[in-house]
Each structure stands twice: as C-alpha cells, then as structure tokens.
C-alpha cells in the first residue's frame, strides 16, 4: 500500500461534506480505511426508529474489490446473520468499482426496507419470515426496540 | 505470516454448529475484518448448504475466483476429537520447564497430581493449557492447518462468561516475565476467544482487585502486573467504542497511571502505557486520559527513546510516540521538528507502510503494538549490484525481515507480510524460519536475542541473497529471483509489541560483509519534504486538503481518464484501472477492447 489512495480520500471528503440523510460514516481516527457507520432504520419498515451501527473496511484492493461491511448492532433480518454479516450481491459477485461507500450504504438501507427471505443468510429468520411474516416483523420490531434504540 | 489466520479456521471448522454456537463468538472488529474471506465465504457457505452442495467446495470456489490465498481454502475436517493425552504429555514437559519461573508452584503441583484427569473444569487445567499454547506458538509454522489443540480447548472454555474469566485470570497468573512472546500470546488468545460482556470485564476487575493501590504490588509481582496491563490493553483495542468507555473506570485509569513509574520493571511501565494508548483509541477515553495528568508522567520517560537498555528504549519509544501523537504538550516541539536528517538519504517509507506501524521521526526505527501484522518498505529501491543493510532487533519476538518488491502486498489484517507472497523473502529469527510465498522452512541460526544484529546482503549480479545473524551467514538463498530480478526494497513485518532499528548505511555497520557492497544511504537521495514523518493527526489533516483534477479517472482519481471500453463505449477510466476490469464498471458488459480516447471524442 502506498499511502492512502486518492480515491479513498476523495470519497471520505465527500461523505463529510455532503452526508447522506439517515446515514453517518466517520473514518476511524487512526485508520482511514476503517469507517464507523450508523444507519437509521427506514420509515415504514420494522426497523423504523432504530439506529444501527455498522463497520466498514476498505481492503487493500478497493475499489477493485468490495468494501467489507458488517452490522455491529443485533438485527433480526433474513439476509443478515447473527454475526452481522450481510447477504447482498453488490458486496459479492455484483460489485463494481463504480460503486462507492455511499452507494453501498444506501443499498444496505434499502435491504432493510425490503428483506428477501428467498435468498437467506440467517436460515431460521428466513423460515419464520416465510411461514409467519407478521410474527417475523413483530420480532424484528422488538429487536429494534431492544438493541437499536436508546444507546 | 502470523497465526491469526486461524480465526478463519475456527469459524469454518464446523459449519452447521457454527451458526448455532457463534452468537457471541467473534464479535470483534479484527476477527471479522481480518478474514477477507469471512463475510463472503461464510454466506456462500450457508447458501450452498441449502442447495445441498458441499460447503468446502464453495469456499474454494470463492478463493479461486479472487485468485489469492488459496492455501486458506485447504482446511481440514474438524479436529474436534482433541488429542488429549498427547497434549497433556507435552504440557507436562512444559510444566517442568516453567515451574522454575512461576510464582505459585503449588498450583502446578496440584495440576501434576491430576494430570490424567480430562475434566477441564478447573483452574489448573486452564493454566496448563495456557502454558502449552505459549510453548507451542514458537514452534508453529504455517504448514499446520489447525490451531494447537490447547488453543482450541481454551477457546471452548472461554465460550461461557465464567470460562472466559478463568482463561484470562490463568494467563495473568502463569505467563512468565522471561518469555518475550508472553504479551503477544495474550493478545492472540484474547483474539481467538469469544469476547466478554462488559459485566464479565467488571467481574475481572473485581477478581483482580484493580485500583490505584494495587499498583504497589507491581514491584514484587512484575509478571502478573505486566500481564494485567497487557490484557487491559487488548480488551480496550478489541472493544474500542462505547464498551471501551465503560471499561475505563477510574480504578483502572488510576492503576495504569500509577504503573507509569520506573521504580517498577520497565515491562510493567511499557504495557501499562500501551494499555492507556489503546484506551485512547476511543475519543472519549482519550479526553479522560488526557485530563488525568498523563503528560507529566510521560515527559520524564521519553528521554529513554535512545537508551541502550533495550527495555527502557521501548518505554521511551512509546512515551515519545504518545507525546507526539496523542497527548500533545504545549511548548514541547514535535520530535520530527528536532531530529536532524541532513545525513539521512534512505529511511523507512512513511507512505509505504500498513496503517498501525509506528515509525520514529528519524525514519530508522519502527514498532508495532497492534494485533495485526504490520509491514513497511524502505524508500530506496535497488536494481543491480551488491547491497547490504543491517537491523538491530530491539525485541526478540516474531518479525519477518528481508527484501520485497513493490508488488508485495501488506495484508496486515490477514496476517500476511514480508515473505508471505512470491514478491518477498524474509528471515524470522524468533521462530528460526525463512519465509517465501507464505511457506516457511527452518534455518540453522540460534534464536535471536534483543540487541542482535541481522545483516542482509543482496547480490543482484549472482542473484543471491545472504542473511547473517551477528556476522554469521546462512547459505545463499535464491527463491525470490524466480519471480523478480530487480526492484528490491529492504522491508520488514512486525508482530505485536515488536521493535527494531535499521541501518541503511548512515552509521558504520557492526558486521560488514567481506565483499565489495554498496549502501542505500550512499546512493539514494530524498527531498527534504520526503524525510519528514508527521504525527498521525497532522498527516490526516493534510490528506483532507488534497484536491483532484476535473478529468481524473472515476475509479482511482489518480490518473487521467483517457480510455474508452469496447463494445459498450463507456469511458471515464484510465488504462491502469481499465486493465483490471473484466466487465464495464458501468454496464457490466464484457470488455473486448480498451482503447485510448481520440482527441475531441467523448463518450460516457
């Protein structure tokens, strides 16, 4: 690695200067490739009212490979597992270097609005989501209240 | 390579169980980020299982797709049947060795009498497992795909909160002062074990009786207190953020501050200082510590940065680093403003280094206190002739020092450094290994000691690499020349708490080889601005003011966007980036031709 790539500096500047509503991404004090992220639960989703912490890391190969992102706050979602790992195509095989930190975080916010139990990461959650959606949504709301508010 | 790569192994060893058990395991930043493979690898794994495919295949598939670190994919089936008997035998031999060093021998006598008891539910067994891990770590090499069984057992014990407490108290109790790898092993074990809740950490404080007064015991029980400080530092790093704030209660702060006194062993001072530095990674703690009077304690310590007592030298290094980077003192000039670099023409490259390595403003000494594997290259590159440089190891732990080209990557979080790819070769005097392509083989030198001099001779005419410990050369090595013939930099990687000093020819060498050689310092030049190694906050501030040209490549922002992709006709990228793309970055259509723009022609 030779210093901090201009691409990362440029993205960081823009994130600070023009933040995305409902999303906060702050670079770590000692590691400019590591971001402390907060995403607000989208309105009209079971996550509404919650504030979810994530961590985002730009690997050496970024932007030729995707950022690594993980939920730090517990969340009940069929595409997010107990360790906070996210099942999202653009973080894997559908990554493009034209995508950015900002677009990745927007996609994650969108994933909260539209859970996809047919492509599950957390199997038990996905099953309940398919069998009894109302109950699953209730659980997601409860988890949001317990883990994602007031901290 | 360092052993943290096992975290991937631990996660993968038993996939179905993993999703059940791992609720609170591995919720640490490093463990997850460290494993480039984890985020993607495991999720593929879960999907593939639902399609009734073997999970290991998906993992390899993933690795092949990304075309690196394939040897990670070769994970063996779960070794859940521990070799208990074998372990106990080696643990017992180990015990006999360690008994001399440990302060509570009666615990071990009890352990000996019940050594054939498989029940791990007692402190003595935990002590044995910790000591076993400590002795094994030194002998472990990359060819072992599984972590040592003692480490797996400790990991299992630490699954419960009370088990975690037992493991940590055991480490504090038995890891001896004399073992240079002790603090690194504490870091490793805390890394490997599930992280505790804040309640458990408070229980740990209670069990230790932590307070300002506890520091008084540090004189008589230096090892114990060095270990306590190391544990506190590790936890502060792992739990950076809100948890770290609730961890830094006043008793802990006062205890660590009271330890910053050279009436105690320098190791107690050193690791207490490192713990405070790691607590300061969380901004609120930094303010608290900053207002605690720490500056007055650090100022008398920084003069030891050039001490010939190598333990004190480490204390001085860290004190100076804290005063330059964290706890600024009004009226105290930065160290970089004081050093004279007139005669220095080659140094460690502050712009070619992984994130957490600390480099002195002289550019010739470096240290890592992070749990990652930190690397750096020299500023000067050699292409022909015979070159020599020396390194004085200040600590005797794991460092991989040698030569690397620009193509060698610093994957610090994954545990890869110099000698861990085809573009670098390194010498590790602690584990007594030579490293190339992340594979190691033993060499005949004795284990290095603090103060030893390692010499590196690169003969590009005969394509040979010679390495000496205190003037005693090993046979020539040639591996690296199969992948590179020129463009070599002196380079090094550091495990936690390791430090060394480089001589690129500015000073006379201690063991100059008996052949005609050149030194970097005689042939290199550096612009005055390129010699300045700024404290981190000043470096970050400079970065924020960087500007970008209008016509810059949309992907790297470094070069001009002068390429058009065919057949889709999208543009906005430079040739360097275009060459790395298989599909168009905008429309994902497969690229068949990458052409430079004709003047005046613009597609987008």
UniProtKB/TrEMBL annotation, chain A:
A Pfam family reported for this protein in Swiss-Prot or TrEMBL: UQ_con
Gene Ontology MF annotations: ATP binding; transferase activity
Location of the active site: 87
Keyword vocabulary terms for this entry: ATP-binding, Nucleotide-binding, Transferase, Ubl conjugation pathway
Source taxonomy: Eukaryota, Metazoa, Echinodermata, Eleutherozoa, Asterozoa
Domain UBC core: 3-149
InterPro entries linked: UBC, UBQ-conjugating_AS, UBQ-conjugating_enzyme/RWD
Family: Belongs to the ubiquitin-conjugating enzyme family.
One of the GO BP terms on file: protein ubiquitination
Organism for this UniProt entry: Patiria miniata (Bat star)
Protein name, per record: UBC core domain-containing protein
TrEMBL record, chain B:
InterPro entries assigned to the protein according to its UniProt record, in alphabetical order: B30.2/SPRY, B30.2/SPRY_sf, ConA-like_dom_sf, RNF123/RKP/RSPRY1, SPRY_dom, SPRY_RSPRY1, Znf_RING, Znf_RING/FYVE/PHD
Cellular component, GO annotation: cytoplasm
Annotated RING-type domain residues: 553-588
Name of a matching Pfam family: zf-C3HC4_3
Domain B30.2/SPRY: 326-509
GO BP annotations, alphabetical order: proteolysis involved in protein catabolic process
Sample GO molecular function, one term: zinc ion binding
Region (Disordered): 45-92
Keywords: Metal-binding, Zinc, Zinc-finger
Protein name: RING finger and SPRY domain-containing protein 1
Protein source organism: Patiria miniata
């Amino acid at each position: 690695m030779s210093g901090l790539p201009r691409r990362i500096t440029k993205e960081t500047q823009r994130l600070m200067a023009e933040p995305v509503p409902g999303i906060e991404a702050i670079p770590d004090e000692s590691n400019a490739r590591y971001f402390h992220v907060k995403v607000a639960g989208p309105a009209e989703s079971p996550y509404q009212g919650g504030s979810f912490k994530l961590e985002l890391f730009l690997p050496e190969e970024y932007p030729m490979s995707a950022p690594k992102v993980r939920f730090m706050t517990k969340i009940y979602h069929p595409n997010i597992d107990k360790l906070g790992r996210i099942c999202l195509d653009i973080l894997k095989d559908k990554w493009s270097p034209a995508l950015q930190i900002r677009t990745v975080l927007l996609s994650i916010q969108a994933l909260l609005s539209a859970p996809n139990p047919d492509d599950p990461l957390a199997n038990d959650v996905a099953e309940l989501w398919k069998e009894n959606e109302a109950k699953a949504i209730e659980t997601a709301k409860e988890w949001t209240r317990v883990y994602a508010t007031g901290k | 390579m360092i052993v943290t790569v096992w975290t991937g192994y631990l996660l993968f060893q038993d996939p179905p169980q993993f999703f059940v058990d791992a609720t609170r395991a591995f919720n640490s930043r490093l463990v997850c980020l460290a494993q480039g493979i984890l985020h993607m690898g495991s999720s593929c794994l879960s999907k593939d299982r639902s399609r009734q495919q073997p999970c290991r295949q998906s993992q390899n598939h993933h690795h092949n797709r990304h075309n690196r670190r394939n040897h990670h994919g070769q994970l063996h089936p779960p070794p859940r049947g521990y070799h208990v008997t074998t372990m106990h035998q080696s643990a017992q031999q180990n015990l006999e060795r360690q008994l001399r060093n440990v302060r509570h021998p009666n615990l071990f006598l009890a352990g000996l009498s019940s050594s054939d008891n498989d029940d791990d539910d007692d402190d003595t067994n935990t002590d044995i497992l910790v000591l076993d891990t400590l002795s094994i770590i030194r002998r472990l090499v990359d060819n072992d795909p599984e972590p040592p069984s003692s480490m797996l057992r400790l990991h299992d014990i630490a699954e419960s909160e009370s088990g975690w407490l037992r493991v940590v108290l055991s480490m504090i109790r038995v890891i001896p002062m004399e073992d240079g790898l002790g603090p690194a092993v504490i870091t490793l074990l805390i890394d490997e074990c599930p992280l505790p809740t804040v309640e458990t950490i408070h229980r740990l404080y209670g069990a230790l009786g932590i307070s300002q007064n506890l520091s008084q015991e540090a004189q008589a029980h230096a090892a114990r207190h060095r270990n306590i400080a190391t544990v506190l530092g590790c936890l502060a790093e792992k739990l950076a953020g809100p948890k770290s704030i609730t961890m830094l209660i006043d008793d802990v702060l006062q205890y660590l501050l009271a330890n910053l006194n050279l009436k105690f062993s320098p190791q107690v001072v050193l690791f207490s200082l490192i713990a405070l530095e790691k607590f300061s990674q969380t901004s609120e703690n930094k303010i608290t510590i900053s207002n605690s009077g720490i500056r007055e304690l650090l100022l008398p310590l920084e003069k030891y940065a050039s001490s010939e007592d190598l333990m004190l030298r480490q204390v001085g290094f860290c004190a100076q680093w804290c005063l330059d980077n964290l706890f600024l003192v009004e009226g105290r000039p930065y160290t970089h403003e004081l050093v004279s670099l007139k005669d220095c023409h080659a140094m460690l490259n502050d712009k070619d280094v992984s994130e957490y390595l600390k480099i002195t403003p002289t550019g010739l000494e470096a240290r890592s206190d992070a749990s990652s594997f930190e690397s750096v290259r020299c500023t000067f590159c050699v292409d022909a002739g015979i070159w020599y440089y020396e390194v004085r190891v200040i600590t005797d732990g794991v460092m991989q020092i040698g030569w690397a080209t620009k193509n060698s990557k610093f994957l610090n979080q994954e545990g890869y450094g110099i000698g861990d790819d085809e573009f670098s070769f390194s010498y590790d005097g602690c584990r007594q290994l030579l490293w190339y392509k992340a594979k190691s083989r033993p060499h005949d030198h004795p284990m290095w000691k603090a103060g030893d001099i390692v010499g590196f001779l690169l003969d590009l005419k005969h394509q040979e690499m010679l390495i000496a410990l205190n003037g005693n050369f090993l046979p020539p090595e040639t591996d690296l020349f199969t992948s590179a013939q020129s463009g070599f930099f002196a380079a090094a990687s550091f495990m936690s708490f390791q430090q060394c000093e480089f001589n690129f020819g500015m000073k006379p060498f201690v063991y100059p080889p008996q052949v005609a050689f050149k030194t970097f310092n005689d042939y290199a030049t550096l612009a005055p601005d390129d010699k300045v190694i700024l404290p981190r906050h000043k470096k970050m501030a400079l970065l924020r003011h960087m500007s970008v040209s209008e016509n810059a490549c949309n992907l790297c922002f470094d070069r001009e966007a002068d390429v058009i992709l065919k057949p889709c006709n999208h543009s906005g990228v430079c040739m360097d980036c275009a060459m790395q793309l298989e599909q168009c970055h905008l429309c994902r259509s497969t690229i068949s031709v990458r052409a430079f723009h004709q003047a005046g022609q613009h597609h987008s």
